[in-house]
Amino acid sequence: MTAETDGTDPADPASSALAHFGHEARLEREALGISRADFGTEATCGYSLVAKIENGQRVPPREFAEACDRVFPHANGRFMRLWPLALKYAYPVWFRRYVELEGVAARIQLFNPLLVPGLVQTEEYARVILRAGRPDSLEDAVTARMERQRVLVTADHPQLWIVVTEYALRRTVGNADVTRDQLQRLKDLAEVPRNVVQVLPEAAGYVHGSNNPYGLLSFKEGADVVHVDGFPTGYTVADSTPVAEAQKAYDLLKATALPLDESVSVINLIMKDVHK
Fold this sequence. Notes:
Order of helices and strands: HHHHHHEHHEHHEEEEHH
Largest sheet: 6 strands, mixed
Structural class: alpha/beta
Strand order of the largest sheet: 3-2-1-4-5-6
Shape: globular
Strand content: 5-15%
């Protein structure tokens, strides 16, 4: 998704944090006499991506910002400080606050009746899902979704609890390889001691709160929030009454879903079916 430029030139460094990042990177690169192709080698990307980032047309991956701070002698960490501001432009406006909260949550509880939740999608699974929405920039959307997942591998990563329907797991996304890799990703997550992955079996029938995808965030300090995915926009709520209702619904889902060990067994069975 592109920045909201209100008719301004996206390459104008004053138009957005995204454009400012690209402008600063170009000034530093040109001052050193480094070609875009050579800098692309340093940043593990191609000439075209360097050009688009410098022109404010693409969101820079984290590795690009790290390369800027490493290669440019007077950067002093400036590009990694600018990078979170630039990354925001890959998220819809209504989703940005939730991403900020997700990054500092102590516990994340997710449910999705149709798909594996975005926070734990593999890159190819995410690409298939996001491509279907015809975003302005597919690669920006994929970059942003993958970047969110870094919160799961930090030293103080949040407790992660996922409830996903058996239907969502049996649904072929992309092709058999993409689907199988995504199922393996869920298995790997389930093996992390602080995580829980539960499957809501098809035999469970209707469960209250199982119509819409949503997530609950809890913090070491401060009130919980709930985010409900929707079309064309989702929304995040901090009011205590709907948050309590969402937690009650999630507790019912957890109680109805299969225990962790049985859920992993179901995932294994589905993985075998995918190979057929």
